[in-house]
Amino acid sequence: MNRKRIISSALLITFALVLWFLPPPLEISLSTWHLFTIFITTIGVILFDLLPIIAASVIALAISVLSGVIEPAKAYAGFSESFILLIVAAFLVSHAVHKSGLGKRLSLHIIRRFGHSTLGLGYSVVATDILIAPAFPSNTARSGVLYPIVYGLAHDCGSKVGDNTHKKAGSYLMMTSMAGLTVSSSLWLTAMAVNPVGVEIASKMGIHITFGLWLLYALIPTLAAFFLIPWFLYRIYPPELKDTPEAPEKAREALSVMGPISRNEWITGSVFLGMLLLWSLSGIFPIDKAAVAFGGLGILMATRVFGIDDFRSQGEALSTLIWFAILFALSTQLAEQGFMSAVAKHFTLYLDGFSWISVYVLLVVIYVLIHYLFVSQSAHLLALYGIFLSVGISAGVPGVLMAMMLLFATNFNATVTPQGSSCNAIYLSSGYINARDIYLYGGAVTFMNLIVYLMIGTPWILAVSR
Predict the structure, then answer these.
(1) DSSP 52
(2) Which pLDDT tens digit goes with each residue over 76-122?
(3) Fewer Cβ close by (within 10 Å): the C or N end of the chain?
């Protein structure tokens, strides 16, 4: 370890020890306070790149269980969550799409149409996401659709992991696609599983939001964010490869060389389309999305499109399962033990006497910042949405404005941490981006989204909801 890492480690350990022995504030129990100490220290370890996210998570789990902060059954509960298994299955299917050549064919078609610049590719990826989003009630499933396309685009730009060319185009495209999911999920009521849950909670407070009204309220701020995200990341997280004027012609030549669609591509494409259809219907019928992904993976393995050796080589999938399940369990226990609601209620005590505009802005900002403690957008909404909405309405904030902005924030804050959304795990597993990149640049995108939705979304919603 170099001197900087030694100093950072010493400071973080000191910080953790001080927190651990401090008396718990806000009537929080001692075990809950110790759990928070472990969780926030783990985030610090990841943020300062002291350990890989998998190592930090495993150590956090061990300390939590051995210190008696969490019961073993609750600590391991994340491994049985279907949406976490969906991440792993979708990741493996995505690699099958790449291996079969279908991902390469799709990416070449995109390059042929939009490949004059890396920025153009960034816009095309996010636009694709926005167009398919209303049919996908799971943004995790949608990331499984987009990932192999982005992976193929990176490879066809000559940007690969392992040969020091990942930043040529791949890192930018992965980060852009991941960030794009935050706004595609905000645009459509059906683009994120938890959106209808928030609408139902709001309806119990007399605020009624239909599919059409959601789209109307979201349209202007989300389109503004769509136009800004690829450009913003292009400025702060630039690809080394900027202009590719010859790329469209090369893509045409490569498609010609590939020839007609192969057997493996036909099988993969058919399986993939079947999965897309079932995922899109999961909002209407009781279809388990993880089971769909595993079914598709099983067919690809049975037809030898994705062989046993391929499966064995995907160690990153197991790594993703472990770290995400652990952080999800720790975050869930913080919420169940009342830590999140105690912090939220404490902050709202300081809002007496403020104008409704001040209360509105503060609530939205706090709601976004507190997502650092959550490993699930759904858990975040279920724990805090009702509390924040009722406090805002009580302070005089227009109900529709408060309800919609908190729902938007549930989506646009997803990139604030690597564990901020299950979607992030797939992109992180690519190797093109690391956890620290997401904390820095994903956090910057979240801040930009916050400004866009507050500055543009607020007057727009007030205007159209009268």
Answers:
(1) -
(2) 988 887 777 877 787 787 778 778 888 778 777 877 777 788 898 89
(3) C
Distance in angstroms (rounded) separating the CA atoms of residues 94 and 78: 23
User: Span 159-180, mean pLDDT?
Assistant: 90
Share of the chain above pLDDT 90, in %: 34
CA angle 448-452-456, nearest 5°?
A: 170
Q: Encode 109-143: b = buried (16+ Cβ within 10 Å), e = exposed.
A: ebbbebbebbbbbbbbbbebbbebbbbbbbbbbbb
Give the whole-angstrom CA distance, residue 179 versus residue 413.
10
Residue type for position 83: F
146 with 249: CB under 8 angstroms? no
Averaged pLDDT for residues 177-196: 87
Contact 324, 143 (CB under 8 A): no
Cα–Cα distance, 178 to 446 (Å, whole number): 12
The token duo for 55 is 């190592």
pTM of the model: 0.74
Q: What is the pLDDT of residue 16?
A: 93
* DSSP characters over 98-139: HHHTHHHHHHHHHHHHHTTBHHHHHHHHHHHHHHHGGG-S-H
**Which of helix, strand or coil describes residue 65?**
helix
For residues 457 and 400, is the Cβ–Cβ distance under 8 A?
Answer: no
